[in-house]
Amino acid sequence: MNIRLAVGVAICVFSAPATGVAGQLQGSASEPLQEYEHRAQAYELFIRSLRLEDSGDVVRAIDLLSRAADLDPNAAAILAAQAALYVQVGQTTDAIRVAERALILDADYSQAHRVLGLIFATLSQQALEQRDSRGSSDAEMYRGRALTHLEQAVIAGEPDGRITFILARLYVETGAVDKAVVTLEPFVRDRPGFVDGLLLLTRAYVESGRLAEAVETLEEAARSRPRSVRMLNALAELYESTERWREAADTYERVVARRPSDNELKRRWAVSLLNAGERESARDVIKKIVEARPTDALTLYLLSEVERQLKNFNAAEAAAQRVIELEPSSARGIYALVQVYLDQGLQVELVDAVESFLKHLHENGQTPRELVMLLLESGVKYQASGDDDVAVAVFELARDVAPSDPALEAYLGQAYLDSRRIHDAVKSLLGARERHVGNLQLDGVYARALVLSGQADQGIGVMEDALLTHADEPVAHIGMANLLVETGRVQDAVRTLRDAERRFPTDPSIPFQLGAIFEQQAQYADAELALRAALERDPSNHMVLNYLGYMLANRGERLHESVQLIQRALESAPHNGAYLDSLGWAYFKLEKWDLAETYLRQASEQMSQNSVIQDHFGDLLFKRGRYKEAIEAWERAVVGDAELIDLPGVERKIRDARERVGR
Q1: DSSP symbol at 24
Q2: At what angle do helices 577-589 and 369-385 cross, to 10 degrees?
Q3: SS3 annotation, 503-545
Q4: Residue 42 · residue 59 · CB < 8 Å
């Protein structure tokens, strides 16, 4: 800080002598005269310090201010100016000490607050760079002190741009985004060319949930500065965060035109194109990066991903293998290769690839945690789509990779049950429970496996023991209720959940499960009451929103409300195949055929083994007179998981459609 900031007030704030009544000086005549002389000398030293600072001799300027402070010890302006010079030479501790002395003399002195605010703001940034818990704690403390002093500086003195900007930045960092917006809006209006200010205001809008204003601010700024790479890049990132992929891709294209050698920007452009559904265009961009940098493993990984999505499996496999060659110990290449094999159902190739990779890792003493997560995600995906045999193979691989993970053993047990390998499930889970005593997830799957194997009493006993151990966990009560329903004890299940409702008055999962049981028993009024109770506890719970919306749609009741409920569910999970089917089915009931086809087709492609979804899609195609396509969908329903559909009814629909095709 240049000490000239203090000059304007220095003359009037250098200490004044105490006076008695009628302005008469107290004490002897020589004392006030000496005080005036000292103050005059102090002021002369102050002015000389300015000249020394101009010449770059800050150390001597500090020395003169020390002498000035000795001559006039009650002058806050001298101490504040000295503190500012200490900052210039990096003597932060001395700067804080002297500035705090100034505030003892004058608690409202703006320049002292300014110096301290800037010091603590800088210290907070330095603490954050330490990237550990101590640094985070220190940063929080320094931010708090910086805010206190900078707010006082604004109140007590003339605000300046630097203080306003730093104050706003601290508001954003501490979550006080509303204050940040109020501070930054006039600041940005007065400085329309200050890019950092615009970007900080945009961040404040985003963090306060005002996304539309954030986008509007950056779009306007980008229109007025079409050549600003920083502005365009920020706008592209904002489009990404709001999943406006087409706009993100267009904006990244403009940024790349300004920086054609920046491969990271090109990659982000390609990813946006990929998410926008423009796979061929994304591949073209990625290939250009690979041509320029053939050993760029990240870009080759993206190439494998886009080729896989385009069903060019040979090209996808080749790119993934190249990544493995470049990064033999990284999970990235095997991650890509596994997905290529999974999409083709190539279980033998999948197992061979994973085992080869594991052997390499074990030889080098590495833990393949990333691979475990990939296998887990893939297994869950195949479970959801009804590909139970593939799910089993994937979970078996995952268990072999991480044999000490109880969650993986539970997933594998459930996959065995889904593929009707009950004996394998019981055997696998029995061993897993011995290794992980008291694990609720394993106990629940094992209890269900016993019930499905004909050992209902033993299964109920296992779950009762688990409930005693985990009485404080809502999921234990839900597991008990589901098992009771499965054994035909529906009223006991309802009583279990009613008791749990009282025990957990704010948990939405209890009334949700209760609603599901009532719906399965065709007690629709009770089901709706329970589901709405769940929504009162959690209005944005997408599972409850979808369940209630689908129940209404399936019964043809309040269809417009059904659509609204399911749309709210999709806001939280926009790619969920079951939710897409629900929305398509609601539109089907409303006889909005185009909208119905849009969503049912997406659901059908995503969940090809789900018989209910294929049945819905077949009904839609039949209504539209596309009988051959309807037959194909219904045939997929017949060979799918066959759950919750009337197989004889579907077969009759197939015969009817074939007759119509033959006419």
Answers
A1: P
A2: 20
A3: HCCCCCHHHHHHHHHHHHCCCHHHHHHHHHHHHHHCCCCHHHH
A4: no
Residues whose CB is less than 8 angstroms from the CB of residue 485 and which lie 6 or more positions away in sequence, other chains included: 493, 517, 520
What lies within 8 Å, CB to CB, of 546 at 6+ separation is: 565, 566, 569, 576, 578, 579, 582
Helix intervals (H) in 89-191: 92-105, 110-128, 133-156, 161-173, 177-190
User: pLDDT averaged over the chain?
Assistant: 87
Is the entire prediction scored with pTM above 0.85? no
DSSP secondary structure string, 233-262? Answer: HHHHHHHHHTT-HHHHHHHHHHHHHH-TT-
Model confidence over 195-207: pLDDT tens digits? 899 999 999 998 8
- The answer to whether residue 9 scores a pLDDT higher than 60 is no
463 confidence band (pLDDT: 50, 70, 90): very high
Q: Give the mean model confidence (pLDDT) for residues 478-503.
A: 95
Whether 500 contacts 478, CB under 8 Å: yes
Q: Is 27 exposed, middle or buried (0-12, 13-18, 19+ CB in 10 A)?
A: exposed
**So what's the pLDDT on residue 246?**
92
Q: What percent of the chain has pLDDT above 90? A: 54
Maximal CA-CA distance, the chain: 126
Give the separation between CA 251 and CA 436, rounded to whole angstroms: 52
For residue 61, the number of C-alpha atoms closer than 13 Å in the C-beta half-sphere is: 27
Q: Say whether pLDDT at 28 is over 60.
A: no
Could you tell me the two tokens for 538?
A: 């959690």
Which one, of 446, 434, 508, lies nearest residue 475 by Cα?
A: 508
Q: Which domains does the chain have, with CATH numbers?
A: 1-18+26-158 (1.25.40.10), 367-470 (1.25.40.10), 608-663 (no CATH)
| In contact, 559 and 586? CB cutoff 8 Å | yes
Cα separation, 465 vs 474, whole angstroms: 15
Distances (CA, A) of 61 to 11, 15, 99, 100, 357: 18, 21, 16, 20, 67
Tell me the torsion sign for CA atoms 169, 171, 176, 179: negative
Which residue would you say has higher pLDDT here, 386 or 201?
201
DSSP SS3 for 489: coil
Q: What is the pLDDT of residues 36-89, one digit of tens each?
A: 787 888 888 888 888 888 888 889 988 898 898 888 888 888 898 888 999 898
Say how far apart CA 278 and CA 274 lie, in whole Å: 5
Which string of b and e fits 105-120 if b means at least 16 CB within 10 Å?
bbeebbbbbbbbbbbb
- In terms of Cα–Cα distance, which of 341, 444, 452 is closest to 390? 341
Lowest mean pLDDT among 35-44, 265-274, 354-363, 573-582: 354-363
The C-alpha atoms of residue 456 and residue 483 are separated, in whole angstroms, by 9
Cα–Cα distance measured from residue 633 to residue 611, given in angstroms and rounded to the nearest whole number = 9
Q: Annotate 298-315 with b (16+ C-beta within 10 A) or e (fewer).
A: bbbbbbbbbbbbeebbeb
- Cα torsion at 340, 344, 345, 350 (round to 10°)? -30
- 607: how many CB neighbours lie within 10 A of its CB? 24
The Cα–Cα gap between 654 and 646 comes to 13
Closest CA to 394 of 344, 430, 354, 336: 354
Cα separation, 443 vs 497, in Å, equals 19
DSSP 8-state class, residue 505: T
Alpha-carbon dihedral sign for residues 505, 509, 512, 518: negative
Give the model's confidence band at 6: pLDDT under 50 very low, under 70 low, under 90 confident, else very high: very low
Q: What are phi and psi of 176, to 5 degrees?
A: -85, 60
